[in-house]
Amino acid sequence: MITMETSFEKQWERITRGADDVFPEEELRSKLKRSITERRPLRVKLGVDPTGTDLHLGHIIPVLKMKQFQDLGHHCILIIGDYTAMVGDPSGRNKTRPQLDHEAVMENCKTYQEQAFSILDQEKTEVVYNGSWFAPMGFQDVMKLLSRMTVARMLERDDFAKRYHSQMPISIHELVYPLMQGYDSGMIRADVELGGTDQKFNILVGRDIQKDMGQEPQAGVCNPILLGTDGGEKMSKSLDNYIGLHETPENMYGKIMSIPDSLMRMYFELITDVPLVELDAMKRKMDEGSLHPRDAKKRLAQLVTTRFHGEEGARVGEAYFQRVFSERELPQNMEELPLGLEQLDDGRIWIVKLLREAGFANSSGEARRLIRQGGVKIDGKVMTDPDLDWPARDGVVLQVGKRRFAKIRLQG
RNA sequence: GGAGGGAUUCCCGAGUUGGCCAAAGGGGGCAGACUGUAAAUCUGCUGGCGACGCCUUCAGAGGUUCGAAUCCUCUUCCCUCCA
Question: Predicted ipTM?
Answer without folding.
Answer: 0.90
